[in-house]
Amino acid sequence: MTDILEAAPETAETTPERTVVSMRNVSKLFSNGTLALKDMSLDVRRGEFLSLLGPSGCGKSTALRIIAGLGAASTGAIDWPSSRINAKGLPEGDVGFVFQEPTLMPWASVFDNVYLPLRLNGMSKSGARSRIMEALASVGLSDFEKSYPRELSGGMKMRVSIARALVTKPRLLLMDEPFAALDEITRQKLNDDVLRLWRETGITVIFVTHSVFESAFLSNRIVVMRARPGQVCADLAIESTGKRDANYRTSEEYRATTDRVSRALQEAIMLGAQGQ
Ligand SMILES: Nc1ncnc2c1ncn2[C@@H]1O[C@H](COP(=O)(O)OP(=O)(O)OP(=O)(O)O)[C@@H](O)[C@H]1O
Fold this sequence. Notes:
- The chain folds into two domains: 1-94 and 171-276, 3-Layer(aba) Sandwich (Rossmann fold), CATH 3.40.50; 103-169, no CATH class.
- A hairpin with a 4-residue loop joins strand 8 (221-226) and strand 9.
- The radius of gyration is 19 Å and the shape is globular.
- The chain is built from eight helices and nine strands.
- It has helices at residues 60-68, 110-120, 125-138, 154-166, 184-201, 212-218, 246-249, 252-274, and strands spanning 19-29, 35-45, 49-53, 75-79, 95-98, 172-176, 204-209, 221-226, 231-237.
- It is of the alpha/beta class.
- 39% of the residues are buried.
- The chain binds adenosine-5'-triphosphate (ATP).
- Residues 30, 32, 34, 36, 54, 56-62, 210, 230 line the site of adenosine-5'-triphosphate.
- Adenosine-5'-triphosphate binds next to helix 1.
């Protein structure tokens, strides 16, 4: 931790009831000797839109995958203070994951792709129908249930991927650079949609990105990470007085926020380069 720790998220509000997931001194040493994370600790509170921001290779995806149970920590622990934990040590049905690639099944319709997590939970197709249609409506794809992935644009495929992550009604949504491969206009539209979904559902989001602009637009908290080794080096509260919409993108407030976040990121990059 450095002196660019601006916000003080560890306040009296950080009670076990409000904490969705905690990383406790998590380190990750890969078998090739790469120390991807060193002693990373983070409390994610209910209802937060938290972005993990940092230069390439600082361990953002590794941290997210460990939280999701897709990889194990070498040392340290992940705690779920308010979830029911299954035999694998993971919170039962509480986590949705959106990857950078939409990872859809090409041979299956949009409906069947979104059905997948419910099918794996043993739900019948007819029983799942209303939930699937609700998830598709939430991403603006009500009319595309019969389409196949090859018939969709990149942005629409990503919407299907988000619907699939939301169909189980998770409490925590993990998103790993989901819009990095999309053009700027599509990316902004999806940013608007994700913010709307976050507001409407009250879901907690952890969003990995290396974009200052995206993180400043979406988040109410940005955790900046440095590389070599991957660690938290700034924890910024991001407030805005108005609604985050098209006007906000051109506002002085947004510009000032992106300046502040850029400075924190620059410092993180310098620390990583110096290996301090
Ligand atoms: N399976 C693996 N085996 C060995 N090293 C790995 C593995 N996965 C990641 N790494 C290394 O761990 C470090 C952190 O990688 P990670 O993908 O978490 O970073 P990142 O911040 O998400 O990067 P990016 O923004 O480029 O996706 C990097 O040095 C990477 O090369």
